[in-house]
Amino acid sequence: MIDSEQLTGQRFGRWTVGERAMNGASGRARWNCQCVCGTTRIVLAKHLRSGKSLSCGCALKSEFGQGAPADAALRRERTIQEIALKLAELSALVAGLAR
Ligand SMILES: [Zn+2]
Q: How far is the CA of 22 from the centre of ligand 1 (A)?
């Protein structure tokens, strides 16, 4: 049932779901979510699952302004991916030398 659904740790757009929050006045399940930019907010579970809520709003802002915190987070993710690629290249190189 809806009350027992487990969303903790799941990602919806830029949200990472944390602890279950108190139900709203409507009685619908709500969750504490953290956006990649660091903003935390309580979001309705149905908004997460339907894709109605994908971020705190910074996804829209970052398209217009540069240097938004969300961009920094995305850049960090990209840098980590680049380092991972470099490591893969290096290990291929080492494997080649060992031959
Ligand atoms: Zn955000």
A: 22
The structure tokens listed for 24 are 């709203």
Domain coordinates of the chain in residue numbers?
2-98
Distance 65 CA to ligand 1 centre (A): 13
Distance CA 95, CA 93 (A): 5
- Tell me the per-residue pLDDT of 4-40, one tens digit each, with 9 for 90 and over: 589 999 999 999 999 999 998 889 999 999 999 999 9
- Residue burial 49-85, b: 16+ Cβ < 10 Å; e: rest: eeeebbbbebbeebeeeeebebbebeeeeeeeeeeee
C-alpha 6 – ligand 1 centre gap (Å): 22
Side chain identity at residue 15, one-letter code: W
